[in-house]
């Protein structure tokens, strides 16, 4: 049977506020355990929450960025359950009236098509603390520094049909939340976490199969692996005549295995009700517009602009605008070298390769857009070839100086002196008389061999176009 | 509506309370008498009435996003039943 | 549950008193987690009424009421979720004021029913209550439900005459449930107000009786989740040698909470659970709006509402502990005031068989100054407030 995969995501995005959603404690990552958990975060008796305006602004900004309805009257509810990392015995969240209503995110698929993923809603809530499982005399340690960190939980419709689509969506969401500055996007610190709801159904069916939820995936790769694994598992179960059980699952990225989460299986009854300690959040159009006016250029608008004003392909424009930092880098480089296509190729090619290899962020790149732009300008004005440019780039990453300094110091300037090139061509012909005769008698593919030999003789510095031209003249002689 | 023994046990489990067998009937009786009282509400027509969550129908006031708290761990953990290395200790958490 | 707990912070109300130079003499007994009408459910044992030590002092703020009635302290604080300031004040013959919801910060008060709780003064006189209010009332940025409204000098209007004051007597407060001795004392007090220049008319608060079921859904529902933080992890009691997490939770909470608290947690948990939320909690909150509307309609017509604070005087210790519903019925005149969020005051207005009777005065939102003015004028004309028990 042909199966179709149906995927919906719930994405937890930590908002990059200074303080927690309901207290004045810092949200900075990496502090000593429980040093950023005050009486409110610990849920001591008699303490009360007060809502952080920074969290509201960022949630509204997100809603505007995905073209969603903004809840003008939203309120917080308590979701009641007991867990050691949940200090009050309830999570303050939103269910009935979330801050962000239906919206959408467009993603670019591999086949070049654009697909719209509908957002059901996004709500504000508080993050939980962490249970540390290192052995403390057979006990677990609870760190509540993260408790109360503001989150938006973004809930999609089940609109994705493959792990690739889910990853494309997740990456696009990452682009949006970092572009508008509501999240630092640092997945390794848990700033974005994904719960994937997966079901399968016979191709052509329009009823949804039973879904499972794999929780807390914190990288695009784990998400992709977990979905693939779960789809395979579900197909196996159904093809063996079994039934899918609705359950919560946990994926282990190290062992590449998943299992059912026993502890979450007992019937939960969260007893949602409006939190009496917090009052409804009421905002008006003026407030919404004031936030709209602070939004930077949104990723989709940027992609459009890159296509229109730089003549980039949709693919290149999407890749380059994936992060605001890369988009800015590209634009500045283009300004210096005057060739957007060349800048695009280098940003996506050599530069990205270097950043990946070194595992550094573009913000920490030792080569500035100005440096790269000047290197590319030397390709443009035929001072060096693209191939030599890679050598220069390498030297630049080693801190050997600017492009021009390196070209000078290493004598890498392209040989454009016709006489010099002609001499080298003659030498090569003389050394390969037989092949040259074959070339002249019509064995065209030998031209590559001769160009190669001349380039080798020039240590790559001859201008390949000129070499070609001179060779062709010699053939006619 | 009235509760039977197994419902009372379910509610107790949700509330993380243990009801001993000998207390169970007592709980069933007293909860049912309270719920009988509550059932008087069912006779009232509340069609279209907006629930009143805050007596003054007030709306939220916001707090500036500025850090106001300092590390109080030592003081706060004096009240902890069991703490070590700055962590609150609990019986092993199994996901 | 909190036997060994030392709060690492001060409540706003007590901090303001300290800042104003008040000295704390001690902490007083109350029903466990303020859940009770008799101060019998305390972990530390029952408190006795100074007018008759076989009788309860009322509750939940029974210890505060006794401290003031017996002359141990000139003033005390109480919290009032369904009558816990006014009813013990009535039972012990003192003045107790529950302010408008949001007038006194709830920061630092252990939450019972968050949308109902309000702290207030318990004193020998309305004048003393006005002085305490001047200190504790006011906006607190740490309490989202605290109202950002200017406060007034509650002592400034104490001496205003009551000429032209329009008093409403809700007929539902004078029904069969009301003890005849109390009825008599209340009507005497009303006559006193007429002689001070007030006019009196009968009004109706038709949903008074329904305030009992509404309250006994809303308060336990909110309490059930407010008390979830008592889980043995961060503070307070933890059971010995828990075998696993579930065992820690259930034994900590079962051993740490008393019977009445557990009963209310169970009721509240049930009222919020799937399938019952609409029938119980939501319905009760709808009824709450209707109750508020009844008061608003009445207060459009009269300045204040008067009636008994309680249907009977203090009962004997142990008399009602086996029947929670019978105990709940005793709160009939005080609950609706919390549901509506209005200010209410109880002042002594006589005795029945040697036990004090409390007159309840209910005002409009933020009209505490008028209540205290009324109390002060009454206390200038009568001496019920200055009678002392033999202790």
TrEMBL record, chain A:
It is an enzyme of class 6 (ligase). One of its GO terms (biological process) is translation. It catalyses: L-aspartyl-tRNA(Asn) + L-glutamine + ATP + H2O = L-asparaginyl-tRNA(Asn) + L-glutamate + ADP + phosphate + 2 H(+); L-glutamyl-tRNA(Gln) + L-glutamine + ATP + H2O = L-glutaminyl-tRNA(Gln) + L-glutamate + ADP + phosphate + H(+). The keyword Hydrolase does not apply. Gene3D superfamilies: 1.10.10.410, GatB domain, N-terminal subdomain (1.10.150.380). Its EC number is 6.3.5.-. Residues 328-475 form the Asn/Gln amidotransferase domain. It comes from the Bacteria. One of its GO terms (molecular function) is transferase activity. PROSITE patterns: GATB. The keyword Iron-sulfur does not apply. Keywords: ATP-binding, Ligase, Nucleotide-binding, Protein biosynthesis, Transferase. Signal peptide: none annotated. Coiled coil: none annotated. Transmembrane segments: none annotated. Heterotrimer of A, B and C subunits. Allows the formation of correctly charged Asn-tRNA(Asn) or Gln-tRNA(Gln) through the transamidation of misacylated Asp-tRNA(Asn) or Glu-tRNA(Gln) in organisms which lack either or both of asparaginyl-tRNA or glutaminyl-tRNA synthetases. The reaction takes place in the presence of glutamine and ATP through an activated phospho-Asp-tRNA(Asn) or phospho-Glu-tRNA(Gln). Belongs to the GatB/GatE family. GatB subfamily. PANTHER family: GLUTAMYL-TRNA GLN AMIDOTRANSFERASE SUBUNIT B MITOCHONDRIAL AND PROKARYOTIC PET112-RELATED, GLUTAMYL-TRNA(GLN) AMIDOTRANSFERASE SUBUNIT B, MITOCHONDRIAL. This is Aspartyl/glutamyl-tRNA(Asn/Gln) amidotransferase subunit B. It comes from Reinekea blandensis MED297. The gene is gatB.
TrEMBL record, chain B:
One of its GO terms (biological process) is glutaminyl-tRNAGln biosynthesis via transamidation. Gene3D superfamilies: Glu-tRNAGln amidotransferase C subunit, N-terminal domain. GO terms for molecular function: asparaginyl-tRNA synthase (glutamine-hydrolyzing) activity; ATP binding; glutaminyl-tRNA synthase (glutamine-hydrolyzing) activity; transferase activity. It comes from the Bacteria. The keyword rRNA-binding does not apply. The keyword Ligase applies. It catalyses: L-glutamyl-tRNA(Gln) + L-glutamine + ATP + H2O = L-glutaminyl-tRNA(Gln) + L-glutamate + ADP + phosphate + H(+); L-aspartyl-tRNA(Asn) + L-glutamine + ATP + H2O = L-asparaginyl-tRNA(Asn) + L-glutamate + ADP + phosphate + 2 H(+). Keywords: ATP-binding, Ligase, Nucleotide-binding, Protein biosynthesis, Transferase. Coiled coil: none annotated. Its EC number is 6.3.5.-. InterPro entries: Asp/Glu-ADT_sf_sub_c (IPR036113), GatC (IPR003837). HAMAP family: GatC. Allows the formation of correctly charged Asn-tRNA(Asn) or Gln-tRNA(Gln) through the transamidation of misacylated Asp-tRNA(Asn) or Glu-tRNA(Gln) in organisms which lack either or both of asparaginyl-tRNA or glutaminyl-tRNA synthetases. The reaction takes place in the presence of glutamine and ATP through an activated phospho-Asp-tRNA(Asn) or phospho-Glu-tRNA(Gln). Heterotrimer of A, B and C subunits. Belongs to the GatC family. This is Aspartyl/glutamyl-tRNA(Asn/Gln) amidotransferase subunit C. It comes from Reinekea blandensis MED297.
